[in-house]
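Customer ticket, subject: "Can you confirm the structure for Transcriptional regulator, TetR family?"

Message body: Hello, I'm evaluating your service for our small team and ran a test protein. I'd like someone to confirm that this is what the system normally returns, since I don't have a reference to compare against.
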Amino acid sequence: MSERIRESNKTKEKIIDAARKLFSEKGFDGVSMEDIAQASGVRKSLIYYYFPSKEILFEEIWINVIDELEKEVFSEVDNESSISRAIKRLIKKYVEFAMNKEEISKLIARERLNVLESENGLHNAKSRYERLLQRVEKIFERGKNENVLNDIEPSTATEIISSVDAVPRRGLLKSIEEFLIKVILKDKPEPQK
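Agent reply: Thanks for trying us out. I re-ran your input and got the following:
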């Protein structure tokens, strides 16, 4: 890789890192391209070279964040044969992500509604987030079909799980994890592996 390409990638990463931090702290509407230029140490005109609009920059960040969330959450879920254990792991991994990736969790919590209700320019971000929610909901649908869910709709369970990053007190998340497992899953012994 040439030095020029390496520098270009480094500049782009500086922009993305600064913007992600600002979006998580102030929200999409609270951040200007000038703010991102100051925080990244990159000229505003160069930011526009890489990202023609704030929406395009935000979408790239959002899609990367959701990709990371999905990869971590499903890393132990996909290969699980027991749906009860898969749901427990899904809840555990989602809560762990919220606890360990505070900046990203704040960004998701702050901007979730903005993305889902967007009418102007965040279509790729919305589509990506909806795909994640559909994947989560399929796990709960499987649980309902196999009769391991309590009296809760898969869509409701999905909304609850996808909102754990909005809990302001991180110390509560472990208790919330245990509570969610009890609320969502029927209390019956797990089948042995």
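A couple of notes from the result: The chain has a mean pLDDT of 91. The longest helix spans residues 3-26. Feel free to reply with more questions.
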